[in-house]
Description:
The strands form six sheets. The chain has a six-stranded mixed beta sheet with strand order 1-8-7-3-4-5, with no helix packed on it. The chain folds into seven domains: 2-195, no CATH class; 215-289, Immunoglobulin-like (Sandwich), CATH 2.60.40; 294-393, Sandwich (Immunoglobulin-like), CATH 2.60.40; 399-505, Sandwich (Immunoglobulin-like); 514-724, no CATH class; 774-877, no CATH class; 898-1014. It is 50% helix and 15% strand. By secondary structure, the chain is α+β, with helices and mostly antiparallel strands.
Amino acid sequence: MGASNTSAGRDPEPGGLPLPPRLQRTLERFRERLWSIKIAEGALAGILGLGISYLLVFALDRFNETPAWLRTSLLIAGFAVPALGLPLLWHRWVWKQRTLGDAARYLKRRYPKIGDELLGIVELAHHHPGDQSQTLITAAMRQVDERLGDHDFTNAVPTRRYGRRLRAVLVILAAAAMLLSVVSEASLNALTRWISPWRTVDRYTFAQLEKLPDSLVIPYAEPFSLEPRLTGTTAWKPANASLQLPGKTRLASPREADRYAFTVPPQKETGSLSLRVGDARERITLAPLPRPELTSLEATLRLPDYLRYPSDPVVPIRGNALKLVEGASATIHGKTTRELSAAESDGAPARTEGASFSSEPIVVTATQTRRFTWKDVHGLEAKSPLELTLSPVADEAPAVQAHQVEAKRVVLEDELVTFDVRAKDDFGLREVGLEWRLASGGKAADESLAGEKPIAAGGPEKTSIEVRGTFSAKREGIPSGTYHVRAFATDFLPNRERTHSPAFLLQILSPEEHARWLTEEFAKWFRNARETYEREQQLHESNLALRELGLEALDEPENRRRLQDQSSAESANARRLDALTIAGRGLVGEATKNPEFDAERLERWAEMNRDLEQIARERMPRVADLLQQASRAPGNAPIGSEKPAPTPTADSDATATSPQSPSLSDREAGAPPAKAEDEDSKTAPPSSAPIRLPVTTLAADEEAGSKPGSAPATPAQKTLDRALEEQEELLAEFAKVADELAAILASLEASTFVKRLKAASRKQTEVADALAETLGASYGLPRQRVEQQIREVAERVAKTQEEQSRFVHHIQTDLEAYYQRKQESIYRDVLDQMKDRAVVPALRLLGEETLANLVGRSVVASEFWADTLDRWAEELVAAAPDPPGQTGPQGEQKSLPPELVLRIMKVLQEEMQLRDETREMESTRPAFAPDVYASKVRPLAASQTDLRERVDGIVADIHTLPGAADFDREITLLSLVSDTMRQAHAVLTRPDTGPEAIAFETEVIELLLQSKRQSSGGGGGGGGGSNAQNPSGGGGGGGKGAALSDIGPQRTAGENPPTPDREVGQSTGKAGRELPEEFRRGLDTYFNQLESN
């Protein structure tokens, strides 16, 4: 059976018998029916799969966004049904049922008997054996054909599955048709999204929302609003919408005019929002970012043309306010923390570039406020807009301040006065300078004696200038007198008046007038020194009175307090004398600038001042310390009445204190040494009267420190004795110095009268010469016929004689006052002659005669008075002897003569002035044309040459000194100064006043200062002794020039000279560490009061 089935299923062999036609047609109809039904079932299954896939996409889209991958999967699944089912069905129902035997075999399933017969007939016909009769086979086939006849086997094909599938397909098609007719947009949208899932097709929703961003940048940690809106074509308008926040928070909002308003709380982290409005679903990613903040704000100013700025300045803006000069415009530039997409200025678009924005130029004519807003590329705006206030302001006048470097009111006519000038302006300084005018004293000032000079050139962008300006009456060509000098500054505003500093009042004096003024100042200074000496005498007398007291009386608290008061008064007097010595140094320094003072007299004056300084700073404080020690020393028992200590020490009297009453006994610098044998090794101080250090007596010496006939001395009395001894010695020294100062003062005053008379004599000679030149052209003519030029000469002479009459009158009155004080016959003789000759009215009369054209008489009279005044000066020469010479022994080393020291000092002063003038010229250089600048530098180069020649003269004079070999070091140093000056001159002649010239001049100044210091302690470049009491060296009274060289430019006026090194004593006792003097005295007073109570 199996074999037959197999054979029946194969194609007929060659030579097979044909089936009866009717039977064959019946089987073929059955086979075709089977094929169609099965293929239809597959097609319906494919249509059903596709329809279901589409409807699933449509249904899913109604609830949420169907992802592309799911739509793709559904599409593939829908197409997979027909794509896979139809080939399988064709293979099964067509390919495998392609023969009539296959059809009979399938029919057997429904009709087994008929199927077997048909299968047998088909097999006999196609595969009959060769040994069987064909006739019999044909008869059998005819028999079956006749029996079956026209029987229809189509009903044997199964159609149940086909019907189900057909109904399902019809339902699917009906549903799709209904969707297409009812919700065509949604169905078509779902069809598009289903058929092309790879395309980005927005899901159709019945609730249509306006486009929302996929990601939203929000302000960091700030609440923000979200307002989704329904479109105008929406088919559904839900009454509510919900918003799911990161986390579990859900917000709801009702519909208000087609929009839903949500206020989202602050967010700090990246997250997403889920929005649901009906069937519409939106997911928004949140990115919290800080708002774009302003990091810098500046303005580019377009200034008015008169300010001459080469470029537009950029100024920072602070405080949301900007002030502009009138007529200027501003372009505002801002920079933010993030790239910008847009910016506005008062609603007008502003330029943006990256993270910066710029406004259009703003012309400010009145105060206005501009509002700036900006938005970054993420849509974030500033938290609040920038409101910038723009205000126009007037161009302010420059401010100028001046400071006189050396605050002096009286200066020589050739002295250089320096001013430190500072000027400021809000935009630019044009010029800074000095101006001067004669002090009118309430009268109209002489404009011819007014002048000005620039000291610094400005520039459009030079808003501040600090410069040192110089003023010299001789250089500016103005006569002596009282002048107001002030600094001025100008800016670039047209027709602006100058801005001035407060004026400085300067009294410009000629050398003669300056010498007279300085002599008067020295007289005042000497009177104060005399008062200090008299005060010291009074203190000495009070100290003697205290010493005269008995033992018990001196130990009384009241007398101990008197000792403390005496100590304080001694310290105060020392400070007063110290202040006088500082003032004395200033007077000597001023005198060194005046050629009217000779070097010997100045050297002696400086030496006396140094001696007073030593008294004020060493000896008087030592007396005060001894008095303070006496006030706190133990009393009651005399030293000789007590049992001596087992191991007495030299400083036992200074350190002995009561155990119940502690006392500070540590000695400071300058206190007397403790051991008597040490005093022998000390060098006497360099004064004419040697200062002996007080002797400390040991306790075993019962008579030491006691006055003849007095009781054994207590420690307080012994210390007081030492103080009295010290005070007596300093009084003796003070008296000697005062006498020498009096002699110097007398010499100065006398020489002043001589010089003033000589000056008056020279002036009369000049008048006679001037008149003699006009004698030939005007002699014997009436005044009306004299030429105008000659009349002008006569008028000038008349004015000069009027001034000389007053000048001589002042000499006469001063001489009379001086005679009343000195009572010396030589002054009386000259004074009587001046009165008898009536010199004052005679000189005034000469001026009147000159105006009357009595030229011949005037010439003769002027020559007469010139000779007379000169003779009177010669008579007074005897009253002005040279100052006393050195009283102390000369040191072993030689010193430069005071004249040479003084010349070096003057060169130093003038070199410093030249450096200031060079700096000033460099400051004004931009204001001058090259040829003008060269002409102004030329005098500076000439001054440098003159100074070099003077230094060379000093070197030549040193070579002529006896023992010139001792001054090799000074000669070498001054030669180096000369070479450096030559280099400075070469730079100035280029011309160049820049840093190179300043460097050479500074080197010269430093070398001259070194030279002046080397000449201080004696000749040979040294001589500085090691004696603590004579720090300036030079031995004995100090070499010539030693004291004078301490006065000079290396120390400013009023500055204390260096304190001499003093030996610091050290002792042991109960006091412990050393304390300052003021603390020691206060504590000792406190302990004494405790003890007395």
